[in-house]
Amino acid sequence: MTANLPGTHRSFFPAIFLSPDEPRLRAGWRLLIQTIFMLLLMGCFGIPIGLIIYIPSIQISDQLFMLLSEVISFTTIILSVFLSRRYLDRRSFSSLGLDFSSRVIKDLTIGFLIAFFSLALIFLMEILLGWAHFDAFAWEAQPPVSVVSGILLALLIFLLVGWNEELLSRGYHLQTLTSGTNLPLGLILSSAIFGILHINNPNATWISTVGIFLAGMFLAFGYVRTHQLWLSIGIHIGWNFSEGVVFGFPVSGWNGFQITKATFTGPALWTGGSFGPEAGLIVLPALLVGAILIYIYTNPKIR
Question: Which of the chain's ends, N or C, has fewer CB atoms near its CB within 10 Å?
Answer without folding.
Answer: N
